[in-house]
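Re: the request from the purification team.
They wanted to know what the chain is likely to look like in 3D before they choose a buffer screen. I agreed to run a prediction and write the result into the notebook, where they can find it.
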Amino acid sequence: MPQSSLTSPRPGGRPRDESRDDAIRAATLDLVAELGYDGVTMDRVASRARTGKATIYRRWPSKLAMVLDAVQTFARERMPTPDTGSLRQDLLEFFTSFHEAVRGGRGRIIAELISEMHRNPELREALRIGLWTQRDASSRTIIEHGIARGELHPDVDGSILTEIGTAIILQRVLLTGDPVDRSLLETIVDDIVIRYAA
């Protein structure tokens, strides 16, 4: 299933009110965090966003498309690709943004979607193509900049570098409840990620 067919609101008709798009996405994210993926319905989203179901269906063809678009938009806004001129600083900002995105109430979104993925192959594939590909694109850019500046060897496996950090953060946020602070992020970057790449 092509990514664009899922995440792109439907074209055509009169010009859309972008504030409606934002309200629908916000309602979708809130409901995923509160009720899980199964608990999200078009009726509930319409009620929470104070809009009609027809307005939603004019934008997205299905619940899956709506949820994935909301999650991707949230990730783009909350996890921009840093470009500070320093690999260390880029990684610190990347992991900080990732942590801020997955903690707190909205962090439940990731937990709920992960718990649903093994029961819903369509959702798993959509998230793999959409959300994780987006995260990987951001981390790949960081690694490419580091290679271009001579901070990393050209043959380094960049995906492993950022997967290590995000895995540690997700484990603490979703499983153990152990704190994620600046000191931990610096340890991840200096003693694990950069040392692995050396």
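For the purification team: The chain is about 75% helix and 0% strand.
Please add any questions underneath this entry.
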